[in-house]
Amino acid sequence: MIEESEEKVKTLSLVMQCNEPLQIDNPYYMALKYHMEEALLEKNRCPNTSTPSPSFALFSEKYYNEINNLNHSKIYDFCFIGSINSNYQARQWVIEFAKKYFTNNSIFINTDHSPNWELLGPFDYTHTKTGFCPKNVSDNQSKHVQYRVVSENLVYFESMCQSKFVLCPMGDASWSFRFYETLMCKSIPIVESIHHTYRSREEAELNYKYILYTQIENDINYNDYINENIVIFENHHMLK
User: Fold this and answer.
1) Cα separations (Å) of 195 from 46, 139, 153, 198, 207?
2) Is position 152 within any domain?
3) Residue 118 contacts by C-beta under 8 Å, 6 or more apart in sequence?
4) What residues have CB less than 8 Å from 239, skipping those under 6 apart?
5) Fewer CB in a 10 Å sphere around the end CB: N or C, the chain?
6) How many CB atoms are located within 10 Å of the residue 216 CB?
7) What is the per-residue pLDDT across 101-155, written as a single tens digit (0 to 9) for each?
8) Which range of residues forms the domain containing residue 173?
9) Looking at per-residue confidence, does 48 or 9 come out higher?
10) In whole angstroms, what is the distance from residue 80 CA to residue 107 CA?
């Protein structure tokens, strides 16, 4: 699985972008502001210019390197760690995908902490491993909640770093912050739609490499995808 002409997938992406109008859906997110502040401070720039809706999401080198220094041995094929109830209807495909494709070498954690959650399979660690759901916290717009400290969320980041593919369903908007995290973890995002791969008009032109969940059985050049995403991320999501 996963080793086909990159040109075929790239062409598909470009055709979709040309034929379908952009869907810019709520590009605001407080975590973007907090990460931009850290990136500006790191470069001795004024943090007051940070915004929850930047053209390009910005991250500090320190944060990027903290993730980069984790173990990236790809011992898992697929990974999803997140809430299902935060957008239940939009995340049903995640459950169906996990049932169909996840294996003993996958990791799934529903962070809703529901005691009634029925495990999806041997890959589902919902009741045995911890997961953090920001929406369950009263001050969920604060930096303490929105800025996910790497050292305090090692299960989350290490699992993604050690996974070849990470499911990135839409959240409150058509995009997901997990998409950026997956790129930093040097894994390939799996999404429901091309419209879930960008947050702004500027980011829509970056041509990230990703997989549509309905096309997971298509072959791609995995290492080329990872390397191209690294170049895109470092050129557009980090201050020079």
Assistant:
1) 32, 29, 28, 6, 12
2) yes
3) none
4) 39, 40, 42, 43, 45, 58
5) C
6) 16
7) 999 999 999 998 888 999 999 999 998 877 666 666 667 677 777 789 999 999 9
8) 6-236
9) 48
10) 6
